[in-house]
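Quick one: structure tokens for this chain, please?
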Amino acid sequence: MIRAATAADVDRLVMLGQAMHAVSDYAPISYNAAKVARLLVNLINGAGVVFVAERGGVVVGGLAGGVTEFWFSDEQLGFDYSFLIEPTSSNGITALRLIAAFKIWCKAKGAKVLKMGITTGINEERMSELYRYAGFEQDGTLFRMEL
């Protein structure tokens, strides 16, 4: 089941985020659980949106995002903060349903474009296939440098 997150989901989402962080390219950077919780609460309270995937009453994944103006235009852009599914519960249908809910929300908020990315280094090929299957086109390349 896909549904809008509530404040009662925040602790579970923070835990799932921390588990993903630990195995991602971001692992060398500290994880501030309290900061993540504050962001999720703000998004749930209207600064954006958080959708969760639930199985048997347990949250197994989520997608947090928002809509903002392009830096060069007054038109709206949808974007994701985080998209995660517990590895033991990972399947394409759950991921596609989370994306579909987010797409509907972004469109309702006036977004002309939705951009989602893969910056964790986790399952990049599989996630790329998922995004293509969901109707996305590859859009650019991301680079990073350790400082």
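The chain has one domain: 2-133.
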